[in-house]
Amino acid sequence: MLIRKLFKFENAHIVRNCTSDRCKRSIHGHSYKVELLLKASKLDHGQMVYDFGLLKGVIKDLIDSFDHAICFWEKDDSQYIDACQTFSARWISLPVSPSAEQFSRIFFYLAQQVLQSTNTQNGEGDVEVYSVIVHETDTGYAQSFIEDIQNEQMGILSLDGIVFSEQIQIEWANPQMYEDLKKGMKFNNPQVDLQVEV
User: What keywords appear on the UniProt entry (predicted)?
Assistant: First the structure.
């Protein structure tokens, strides 16, 4: 079974080496919509794949990090990177170009890492990320699946390769959450007192 959670944010970037002259040479922004699709072959005690309320924690904080931020590819010109870091408090350095295709891979990867680092406590089953769809405009989107995350030709993703500015980090509910994730620490979902015997 699949469930879908929609997130929204505003973000600016330059997509180097693309065909469109406007995109590769000028900073521009988009109103993004991110669809996170989770799958499981069993339901929890609440008869859900995964409680939507649980997606308002670490995963939401990570996706919201991209809101009103500028994203740049770590291989971009050093003067451009310096300008982004100097004139924007909210910036994210990425190991890949900030295209919609790579955003879909990044959000898949981040959500996957969080789910794998979460202790569930309500009988959740084999919950995992099925797909992520990133709408860059009303007419175009990119969609990634697990095979895209593991495809090194598309660029290697790692937690260390995604760097969030200090301003972004201090706005998280837990400013240490990303470091905790990188260290392999576990996040605990709330315990649930069952009201009806399962």
Answer: Lyase, Metal-binding, Zinc
132, with CB counted inside 10 A (0-12, 13-18, 19+), is buried
d(CA 39, CA 49) in angstroms, rounded, equals 7
C-alpha span between 103 and 15 (Å, rounded)? 12
**Model confidence, pTM:** 0.96
Sheet holding 28-39, edge to edge: 141-144, 128-135, 28-39, 2-13, 69-73, 91-94, 163-164
Tokens of 143: 């969609």
Residues annotated catalytic, as ranges: 23, 68, 136
Q: Model confidence over 97-132: pLDDT tens digits?
A: 999 999 999 999 999 999 999 999 999 999 999 999
User: What does DSSP say about strands 69-73 and 91-94: parallel, antiparallel, or unpaired?
Assistant: parallel
Structural tokens at position 35 = 């669809």
- Tens digit of each residue's pLDDT (9 = 90 or more) over 35-91: 999 999 999 999 999 999 999 999 999 999 999 999 999 999 999 999 999 999 999
Amino acid at position 152, single letter:
E
Q: Which one-letter DSSP state was computed for residue 57?
A: S
Task: Identify the structural domains of the chain with CATH numbers, from first to last.
Answer: 2-184 (3.30.479.10)
| DSSP 8-state assignment for residue 16 | T
